[in-house]
Amino acid sequence: MIVSATAVVVVGSGVLIWALDHSEYPNIWVGMWWALQTVTTVGYGDVSPINPSGRIIASFVMFYGVAFVTVFIAVITSIFVARASEEHGLAAGQAERIEARLDVIEDRLGSARRLASQANGGISGLGRAKRRLSRPSNS
User: pLDDT value at position 44?
Assistant: First the structure.
């Protein structure tokens, strides 16, 4: 669609510039050559409009050329963004799996801490009882 619209602009503006500025554009093909290089923003400068009417046409063709390049770059960028989104989607799935595994590890670590504190309480309780038994009594 973009290429078709560009072809129409090139042919239409080539014919129009030839019709309005015969001195600079002796035939339609020179007009189309000028339109093609203007629309693609190459602009060799071998042919350029001299009359005000030709310059007005040139302004519209130049604006179209800039818009064409902008749309073309936007299409390429959207392809890169779509690919990055797909890759990021895979990474997001991996992140969810890692997060689930971390939750399991945190639960197990909490259980291990509870068991360790219970065991320490029992061991320190035994140690206190042993110390009390080993102290000489004052009586």
Answer: 81
